Amino acid sequence: QQQVKQSPQSLIVQKGGISIINCAYENTAFDYFPWYQQFPGKGPALLIAIRPDVSEKKEGRFTISFNKSAKQFSLHIMDSQPGDSATYFCAASAGGTSYGKLTFGQGTILTVHP
Amino acid sequence: DAGITQSPRHKVTETGTPVTLRCHQTENHRYMYWYRQDPGHGLRLIHYSYGVKDTDKGEVSDGYSVSRSKTEDFLLTLESATSSQTSVYFCAIREQGFEKLFFGSGTQLSVL
């Protein structure tokens, strides 16, 4: 059973636009929510992460919004650039020694047109 | 890729043959993980290790075994490969006390 559901599967935006990817989780024991970015032929790389004690975290053009009561979190990419074209994965894990035991969403293929 | 080397990068094998994938790290991190990536499933945890000779099962461990005899090496073995094990396999490492996972570049395995 998929415990982290991600949408949309694919997303096309114009350069300068906002990209939004959504995830929902079921396991209330999760307390770490990272987003990974993956380019073709490469492994996933951590983009940004959040803990449930805050509702928003921003790093440059990337923002995570977190809604604990709804068990949902989302990634917003402002001023999207062609170099942002990649596959994005949300993930979740419990804490402590379980941090590396991530449950991933299905992934979103983002294409940013120039 | 954060001092992680996966080998081989590509492998084609036949159903029923044994296959071993290797993950080598130069970071001396305690935790190591094997994930597989399949379309529509994201990445799923196969096995992980929290130290030399200390391993445990992940979400999709059936048909796989692992070994870790040295801190730097984590081996994933498919005892008798099946077509359903055709996938991209990623190794990851994590430093104790930190959340961040570093991934290798992956091994593309095709089982014919």
The protein's oligomeric status is heterodimer
Give the overall average pLDDT of chain A.
95
Largest sheet of chain A: 6 strands, mixed
Helix content of chain A: under 10%
Alpha-beta classification of chain B: mainly beta
**Cα end-to-end separation of chain A:** 38 Å
- Uncertain runs of chain B: none
Number of strands of chain A: 11
Q: Roughly what fraction of the amino acids of chain A lie in strands?
A: over 45%
Radius of gyration of chain A: 13 Å
Principal-axis shape of chain A equals globular
C-alpha-based Rg of chain B, rounded: 13 Å
Q: Can you tell me about this structure?
A:
The complex is a heterodimer of chains A (114) and B (112). With 114 residues, chain A is mainly beta. Chain A is globular and about 40 Å long. Chain A has strands at 4-7, 10-14, 19-25, 33-38, 45-50, 56-59, 62-67, 72-77, 86-92, 103-104, 108-113. In chain A, strands 2, 4, 5, 9, 10 and 11 form a 6-stranded mixed β-sheet that branches. In chain A, strands 1-3-8-7-6 form a 5-stranded antiparallel β-sheet, with no helix packed on it. Chain B is globular, with a radius of gyration of 13 Å. In chain B, the strands form 2 sheets. In chain B, strands 2, 4, 5, 6, 9, 10 and 11 form a 7-stranded mixed β-sheet that branches. In chain B, strands 1-3-8-7 form a 4-stranded antiparallel β-sheet, with no helix packed on it. Chain B has no helices and 11 strands. Helices cover 0% and strands 58% of the residues of chain B. Chain B has strands at 4-7, 10-13, 19-25, 31-38, 42-51, 54-57, 64-70, 73-78, 87-94, 102-103, 107-111. Chain B is mostly beta strands and 112 residues long. The chains are: A mainly beta (114), B mainly beta (112). At the A-B interface, strand 5 and strand 10 of A face strand 5, strand 9 and strand 10 of B.
